[in-house]
# Entry
Amino acid sequence: QGQLAEFGGGSVQSGGSTRLACVGNGYIDNRYCRAWFRQAPGKERERIAWIEIDGRMMYADSIKGRFTMSEDGMKNTLYLWMNSLKPEDTAMYYCAADNVRRGCDWYFSRYPYRGRGTQVTVSS
# Structure
């Protein structure tokens, strides 16, 4: 953990927007799975947005329609655009990337390249 670095987040009002960035430092390869996770206080870490090896962007139901994942290959960076934020979106947000061609894993710990997280706090 620590090969990737998340930026952005902070404190946001309910209904507001923010953007997270995940800098890959050369570790993000668009041939393999890339993903965003989050962990709210007292809850399990969950996968919320990911790019499958066939290029499909997938989203968890909890954020579908509000969050959008994108990437900039030239900058080796992933983004998570977060709109219509709710207090229940308060969590530590993490990014992860794989280095083999396989389906995106549910578990953050199984990704070889991971960030240390950035906090997003949504106030009502």
Remarks:
- The chain has no helices and eleven strands.
- The two ends are 32 Å apart (CA to CA).
- The longest strand covers residues 91-97.
